Automatic annotation (TrEMBL), chain A:
Keyword hit for Iron-sulfur: yes
UniProt catalytic activity: alpha-D-ribose 1-methylphosphonate 5-phosphate + AH2 + S-adenosyl-L-methionine = alpha-D-ribose 1,2-cyclic phosphate 5-phosphate + methane + 5'-deoxyadenosine + L-methionine + A + H(+)
Enzyme Commission no: 4.7.1.1
Superkingdom per UniProt: Bacteria
The protein's name: Alpha-D-ribose 1-methylphosphonate 5-phosphate C-P lyase
Function of the protein: Catalyzes the breakage of the C-P bond in alpha-D-ribose 1-methylphosphonate 5-phosphate (PRPn) forming alpha-D-ribose.
UniProtKB/TrEMBL annotation, chain B:
Protein name: Phosphonate C-P lyase system protein PhnK
Keywords: ATP-binding, Lyase, Nucleotide-binding
Record-linked InterPro entries: AAA+_ATPase, ABC_transporter-like_ATP-bd, ABC_transporter-like_CS, P-loop_NTPase, PhnK
Domain ABC transporter: 34-279
PROSITE patterns with a match to the protein in the record: ABC_TRANSPORTER_1 (PS00211), ABC_TRANSPORTER_2 (PS50893)
A Gene Ontology BP annotation from the UniProt entry: organic phosphonate catabolic process
Superkingdom: Bacteria
Stored CDD domains: ABC_NikE_OppD_transporters
Pfam families listed in its UniProt record: ABC_tran (PF00005)
GO MF annotation terms: ATP binding; ATP hydrolysis activity; lyase activity
Gene3D superfamilies cross-referenced by the UniProt entry: P-loop containing nucleotide triphosphate hydrolases
Organism (species): Paracoccus alkanivorans
Length: 279, 285
């Protein structure tokens, strides 16, 4: 089925071994950013080359792959990555969260709870949560090494000072297993609680930045906050216009030129199942 | 029984030491806050500083003067952990463990000390401030770095400190970029003193400011040092600054100390030829 011009899942075995070593290290030290020698992939950066390499390194022929972009299976990005693995690995694909063994994602965690039989791979543009506060890599590395995270708290302080509340609504920083502070990739903060105590393995790949990090199953993940401004996983205060769900994360969709809009589930699989009454 | 006796005697002695060191006047203290022993630092073949030894007592301000290139900043860097000396000891009287050689501390311990019990005021406020962070965030950082997690209380403390350094608390959310040079310097001081440090390192804190702005800053510093019982090592070119702030002086030349004594003594009756030149302003300092 797969294209014989390529090794299984495109990457050669040496490269996969190198990436797996980085992944294992990441799992051994949850939340720690492991450098790895990111390879050129036949797609532009920003298209999830980090996630694709992680997926390729852990994929087996028996895997059933789901790819989502902002919750949807049918966007260009998701479709092309799915096709890429169909062609280079010949694996089965699905749009159903519950049927997938591997899910590569950009910007969302599925609404359907994950299980211990699944691996969730995140595409990460900027792995360093302090990048915009402290541009010096030597200094951020030292901050992580010493768990010296006052600066992270300053970022949240600035948010409240300027907006009256913690306005960071995606890529909301978390503390992993009481140790490393981690950028969960640009998922909405609504998804942050799903990171915590999750039965699935969660892997994060940043291609351009050449970093891999990981959350082993059932890792404690805490969103940073203040005692008097506790973390809240917020979403638009509506129900989905299609399936009626009041609990799933919603996208605002402009429906016409006259300013018409509606709110629909960002997770298209969840929405379809829910509409059928099966979610 | 004999063990108990021995340790009991030890504890008794220690308590006596503590009781006397809590007296406000530094002259009554039994142990120095900072003991510097034979500190030396080279840059390749060039001497940065050499054979530096002195004691700094609680509540005392020590001025370090000398011409450009005499090793003042190098010494300050070595004392404050920003530079690694080639040799010597820098014993700091820590709150929990008594005198500890800070050069042999682990990096996390030294960092902790640097943001709780020490202050460092740079000549250029840009080196000591986060220019992209609000005044309140700048002042609050030390508190957050040592575990403060209550926004309202952090803000209250920041506001209180802005007030103490005479910055309008209405500017708490402005960035330092929008402040004048003198305000930036006062903000840097607030950012350092918010943790209630016992020792401040200052490198030309009034350098680069207009004379009138300098005078105001000096007044402020003098008040803070007095109110907080702060000890300080103050590096400056400006003999008027040490006259106003320093209890004692060390005079440096070519990386070494050539004269030391009470400020008025050294300035009014300099013994070393170099100090005489310095004081008579024959030397361009
Ligand atoms: N990073 C460095 N590399 C090499 N030499 C240095 C370095 N820093 C300082 N020096 C040298 O060490 C000596 C002491 O310099 P230092 O900066 O400590 O003097 P200073 O008394 O602070 O001078 P100034 O009053 O101009 O600030 C000088 O000869 C200087 O050229
Ligand atoms: Mg200097």
């Amino acid at each position: 089925m797969s294209d014989q011009a390529y090794n299984f899942a495109y990457l050669d075995e040496d490269t996969k071994r190198m990436i797996r070593r980085a992944i294992l290290k990441g799992i051994a030290v949850p939340g720690y950013q492991v450098p790895f020698a990111s390879r050129e992939m036949p797609m532009p950066y920003g298209w999830g080359t980090g996630g694709v390499q992680v997926t390729a390194a852990v994929m087996t022929p028996e895997d059933v792959l789901k790819v989502i972009d902002q919750g949807a299976d049918d966007t260009t990005n998701a479709v092309s990555i799915r096709k890429f693995f169909q062609r280079t690995a010949g694996v089965a694909t699905t749009e159903r969260t519950s049927e997938a063994t591997m899910i590569q994602t950009r910007h969302r965690i599925p609404e359907t709870p994950l299980t211990s039989d699944q691996i969730l791979v995140y595409q990460v543009p900027i792995p360093e949560p302090m990048r915009f506060l402290e541009p010096r890599e030597t200094e951020t590395r030292r901050i992580h090494a010493l768990a010296d995270y006052g600066l992270m708290q300053v970022r949240l302080y600035e948010d409240i000072a300027r907006h009256g509340e913690i306005a960071t609504s995606y890529a909301y920083p978390v503390e992993v297993a009481g140790r490393y502070v981690m950028d969960p990739s640009p998922i909405p903060k609504f998804d942050n609680p799903k990171l915590d105590d999750c039965p699935a393995i969660q892997l994060f790949g940043a291609g351009r930045e050449q970093r891999i990090y990981a959350l082993p199953p059932y890792t404690h993940v805490r969103s940073l906050d203040f005692e008097d401004h506790p973390f809240r996983a917020t979403k638009a205060d509506h129900a989905c216009a299609i399936c009626g769900s009041a609990s799933s994360y919603l996208d605002e969709v402009i429906t016409d030129d006259a300013g018409g809009r509606m709110f629909v589930c960002s997770d298209t699989d969840y929405c379809a199942q829910n509409a059928k009454g099966g979610a | 029984m004999s063990l108990l006796d021995a340790s009991g005697g030890g504890i008794c002695h220690k308590e006596e030491v503590h009781a006397s060191s809590s007296l406000p006047k530094h002259l009554d203290s039994d142990s120095p806050l900072l003991s510097v022993r034979s500190v030396a630092k080279r840059y390749g073949a060039r001497i940065g500083c050499k054979d530096i030894s002195f004691d700094l007592w609680p509540g005392e301000v020590l001025g370090v003067v000398g011409e450009s290139g005499s090793g003042k900043s190098t010494l300050l860097g070595c004392l404050s952990g920003q530079l690694r000396p080639d040799g010597g000891e820098v014993l700091f009287d820590t709150r929990d463990r008594g005198p500890v050689d800070t050069l042999r501390m682990s990096e996390p311990q030294r960092r902790h000390l640097a943001r709780t019990d020490w202050a460092f005021v740079h000549q250029n406020p840009r080196d000591g401030l986060r220019m992209g962070v609000s005044a309140g965030g700048n002042v609050g950082e030390r508190l957050m770095a040592t575990g403060a997690r209550h926004y309202g209380r952090i803000r209250e403390a920041a506001s209180d400190w802005l007030d103490r350094v005479e910055i309008d608390t209405g500017r708490i959310d402005d960035r330092p970029r929008q402040f004048s040079g003198g305000m930036q310097q006062r903000l840097q001081i607030a950012r350092n003193l918010v943790s209630g440090p016992r020792l401040a390192f200052m490198d030309e804190p009034t350098g680069g400011l207009d004379v009138s702005v300098q005078a105001r800053l000096l007044d402020l510093l003098r008040g803070l040092v007095r109110d907080m019982g702060l000890s300080a090592v103050l590096v400056t070119h400006d003999l008027a600054v040490v006259r106003l702030l320093a209890d004692r002086l060390i005079v440096m030349k070519d990386g070494r100390v050539v004269e030391t004594g009470l400020t008025d003594q050294v300035l009014d009756d300099p013994q070393h030829g170099y100090t005489q030149l310095l004081v008579s302003s024959v030397l361009q300092v």
